Amino acid sequence: MEEKGKFGLADYDGKIVVPALYTSVEYKGYEPYIRVELDGKFGLMDTEQKLLLPIRCSKLEVFFQRTDVYYAEYQEEGKRKTDIITETGSSILPAGAVLQGYHGAEIMVNINGKDALIDGESGAYLLKPIYDSVDSQGPRYWVCQNGKCGFIDKKTHEVLVPLIYDDKYTYFRNGLVILVLKGKAGVMDEQGNTVIPFEYEKISSGSDNKIFNVRNTAQKEALFTAEGKQFTAWYDYITDDISKQFYYYRQDPPSGDVYKFGYVDKSGKDITGPVFDRPVMFYASDNCIELKKDGQTVYLTKEGKIRKKNCK
């Protein structure tokens, strides 16, 4: 109900439940309490018009699937605070815990400088506060301790990947993850097997870990399959976008010359040599692309042939 620009709540019989004093009122039948807003601040009220939680939160929303617990943001002593609280404002977090965030029912907190995860439904620790950092990633946790990192299974809490790695470049995708061990990049599968040895300067993937761009100590790049097989030669640069018809590469010239570019097919075969002045993406829908070769216009067909005649 509304009166003079303010809102309240009445039941089906017209009995006033919340007087029309607020900027907004929100009540869902399956939730036990009523959220009231006044000038951008939120609080909680019961159906007897008793204010349970003072109107001071800049954000107040039901936490996960629990209707009796709320995520709250508010100011305390001039500082922004976040917490998971009951209807009366009591925190459900362990003493001294600082809320870092939450995903679903998983609550991330920091206690005395250590990260932990708490089950927002039971309140039990999923991971105890012994880690420097914790990141929830699908069915795993990526955890770091004393500068070394690894993966822990969410259900069993068993260590899937030992805490010996320096860093990671990606999440697990296609059953594979790029990790760094003693400063060298490699690729590991979900069973902990090494797919690409940890001997490279950098590994990346723009294709959800289906193709890997690998850089060696000589700063040359090649493409590897998800099975760990190298299928192109080493170049100064090569793309790894499997959505394109061909991969293009760059071959750096001797000092004073200009860069030249070439193309390899999906099997890794060099079909042109480094002869083009600049690269052009070859999309799967293209019949051919227009390129410059020593300043002259030529065309590369999807069969991998170089033509002078326009084939578009």
Task: Report what the structure shows.
The structure is a single chain. With 312 residues, the chain is mostly beta strands. The chain has no helices and 30 strands. It has strands at residues 2-3, 6-10, 16-22, 24-26, 34-38, 41-45, 51-62, 70-76, 79-85, 98-103, 106-111, 114-119, 125-131, 133-137, 140-145, 148-153, 159-165, 167-168, 176-181, 184-189, 194-200, 202-204, 211-215, 221-225, 237-238, 247-251, 260-264, 288-293, 296-301, 306-307. The termini are far apart.
Question: Could you give a quick summary of the protein structure above?
Answer:
This protein has strands at residues 2-3, 6-10, 16-22, 24-26, 34-38, 41-45, 51-62, 70-76, 79-85, 98-103, 106-111, 114-119, 125-131, 133-137, 140-145, 148-153, 159-165, 167-168, 176-181, 184-189, 194-200, 202-204, 211-215, 221-225, 237-238, 247-251, 260-264, 288-293, 296-301, 306-307. It is an all-beta fold.
H/I helix tally: 0
The helicity comes to: under 10%
How many E strands? Answer: 30
Residue windows where pLDDT falls under 50 for at least 5 positions: none
* Strand line-up of the largest beta sheet: 4-5-6-7-8-9
Q: Element order, helices and strands?
A: EEEEEEEEEEEEEEEEEEEEEEEEEEEEEE
Average pLDDT works out at 91
What gross morphology would you assign?
elongated
Biggest beta sheet attributes: 6 strands, antiparallel
Strand content: over 45%
Question: What is the SS-derived class?
Answer: mainly beta
Gyration radius (Cα, Å) is 29 Å
